[in-house]
Fold these 2 entries.
Entry 1:
Amino acid sequence: MRAPMSDLPLVLDDVSLQAGATTILNRLSLTIAPGAPTLIVGPNGAGKTSLLRLCMGLVAPSSGRIDWGGRADSALARRAILFQRPVMLRRTTADNVTYALAQAGTPRPLRASRAAALLDRVGLSDLAQRPARRLSGGEQQRLALARALARDPEILLLDEPTANLDPAATRGVEEIVLVAAQSGIKIVMASHDLGQVRRLAGHVIFLVRGALCEQGRAQDFLDHPTTPEAAAFVRGDLVI
Amino acid sequence: MSDELSAWQLILNGDPTLLAIVRLSLAVSLSAVALAALAGMPLGALLALTRFPGRSALVVLLNALMGLPPVVVGLAVYLLLSRSGPLGAMGILFTPTAMVIAQTILIVPIIAALTRQTVEDLWVEYRDELSAMDVGPAGRMMTLLWDARFSLLTALLAGFGRAAAEVGAVMIVGGNIDGFTRTMTTAVALETSKGNLPLAMGLGLILVVIVLAINAAAWGTRVWSERQAG
């Protein structure tokens, strides 16, 4: 099941996405390379979610091209995505992870032990036999993370995973993400939270109204934003 | 079955004729539900997950077939199974097998149509996650049918209720033969036409109580298992 080649770097070349007459993403060109987490930053409606879906290969661009490690095919083998509101399968917590393992091609005899290890990694071991839909919001996000990690991804895409969480639950999710990043998984995460950018980002892609406004190292973006929109965002002003 | 005895006395005495009628009714209708589920659930799920020209017309047709008149199904199966019909050589007209076939045909559309609606609604919710997990078409069907299992129980109950309550199809293809193909509904029809109204009402009441008991058991199972699995 595992593709031997790497999905990185992920390259978007002049990519646009249209929905009817609306332009959601307008002529983006960017490269996502291995290394520290890349955060896709921008106000609501900037196109962050659409960009993640393009990167995952769930939607095709209206024009332009995307390639993963030099290949234009969109086989999902080495990518995983965490949606903003992940859907829990109507099964137990452990069965949700086992299901993801099965889909990722894990041999049946290994699934139970891998599922236990993944639940331990996201701190849900005690809730393994609980119906997944009874978990709290933060617990559901961590379970969704375990499901995504079950795919043993090279790239992990996350769509504002902490948007609806309180600080304690947010920290729980961020710690798992940081550990994943240290283990060599390339993190690409959408966020509109300046604090989260400071805590996690190595690299920033700043989108405004579907266009690439600014990109670069997180430190440069935070200290010396070059565009007025980025400067306003970094100051904490409302960017619309 | 003695006409002088009321239905309740027959029950209390454990009348073997009555018990045989009840047993046959349940065996025929439950077999029909099982067969219709095997055919109707995959059919409904397939229709929910595929897109092809004429699909909308098929969905409308399937929904309309939920109201298929039992006598029409009975007549069609009768023509198929009668000595001069295409399947006449099998010699199964006026047997419980023929009754199971007729009731299965009657309730496949009910189970398929309700399954289609349930699976389609769940697919809207699951689409992104299953696509991201790279689940293939067969896997999607299995996953959605399994995760919709509590809702699908209602589809099965609707099918069972229809099968247990109908009289037209089993009367035509079964023939209401005493001790062989007589069900509760055909017995009620017969006793009514004979003017034995107390016995007919008693039998009718037993039928209603049995259907109620099965629904209550299914509901209890659903509540219990939902608590277990969410």
Note: The interface with chain A takes residues 125-126, 128-129, 131-135, 139, 143, 147-150, 228-230 of chain B (CB under 8 Å).
Entry 2:
Amino acid sequence: MKRIYLDYAATTPTHPGVIVAMLPYFGDAFGNPSSIHSFGQEAKGAIEEARGKVAALVGARSDEIVFTSGGTEADNFAIKGVAYANEHRGNHIITSSVEHHAVIEPLKFLERRGFEVTYLLVDEHGSVDPQDVRKAITDKTILVSVMYANNEVGTIEPIAEIGEIARERGICFHTDAVQTVGHIPLNVNELGVDLLSMSAHKLYGPKGVGALYVRKGTKLVSLMQGGEQERRRRASTENVPAIVGFGKAVEIVQGGMREEAERVALLRDRLIEGLLERIDRIRLNGHPTKRLPNNVNVSIEFVEGESMLLNLDLEGIAASTGSACSSSSLEPSHVLLALGLSHEQAHGSLRFSLGRETTEGEIARVLEVLPRIVAKLRSMSPLLKSRA
Amino acid sequence: MATNIWALYSEKVMEHFRNPRNVGEMESPDGIGYVGNAVCGDIMELYIRVEDGVITDAKFKTFGCGAAIATSSMVTEMVKGKTVDEASEISNRAVAEALDGLPPIKMHCSVLAEEALKSAIDDYLNNSKRGAPGNE
């Protein structure tokens, strides 16, 4: 059975070209970029070349890119870094209620240490209202952090509008763009962001590497001390092969990004329409139009997400769910609850995230298989008595 | 190969998940158990038929994860042919063991299965108490 991978938002397959580009840096080109001999300088050159590519992808300057161990570290660095660099000025931070845990948890950490955080509510599509950001600002506000696109429901937030407000008030603005970078074209200057998080493995690069864009002049306390790397912003010998792979992945996705986004959006819409047509008591989660080109998130009534995932997996289809049953915390997705879904609807959610290898045939297969799975599970659901 | 992808669950859990036994509602059962809630994400409904103090049939309907479905299926298998007294001794551990174990975070599903059974037995005992005079 040929397996169908529709969980690109979790991670993407490393592009074969990326692997080829990385290999020399596990071998002959093993030098430490901090060394002044030719071994070191070779590695240093490779890192700087990758930095240039990543910078170009988001419209930044090379010296504004700090490589990290991934998106989570980039988020932690942005949030704690700004908070501790500005604690003499204020202790208030504004964010949304649908952020990734990599943003929420550092904020909770700061709250336990005396910072105050406002979690803005979102509408039923998961959108933040920029005017809510304006209203939440106080003279103690030192940071606004709102994600570019939601990892669960795909909603794209009005980042440029929020950026304008933050700039007007002279407040530092961070966006977690882990799901967006490499998928839709973006520019840090047009968005008005000061900090932007990204991750390589979401764009066909290797795991264990990401980057934080830091606008020149942004005050940031570093989380890692012990070396001069990354302009003293992040001590630690650079993960050279991974950084090189990141650069190569950026080069690959940058060519034809718009076309690929259009192609995938067509498949996304076909999947959404097909599911809504073939399954009753189903709803689309997230914004109907302002959404990532590769994200489909639905809630299917009377059935639970993990049991749908297991059945899909038995058919060779990989997807994801916001059901509590699939998480170790046994809490349903905070994002779906923030959109106003009931616990039952959150438990019955499924996310399909598409990618470069997704084909029409694969979408057709999901549309053929899922209604059958839903019917089977509904036949054993106690929530569906009168209809049995 | 598909069955081994879920390192989370034993083959027995997956077998009961794929082919659950005793699914469905029962017409005029002697006891109905209903446990769980939408907040935690698992809801089980369990029906038993009792003749001369022996559980002769059991059925279930479950909204929940793979473990919830498998434990429901297993507990309905385990009670059949047991006396009501014997059945009320079935523990969640016994259900989990019969499935070759559950991951720690899924043990609550076996608790739910035990509670559904206890609730069905309680319902049966209440019904028979209430129905005893006159019906005998």
Note: Chain B has a mean pLDDT of 90.
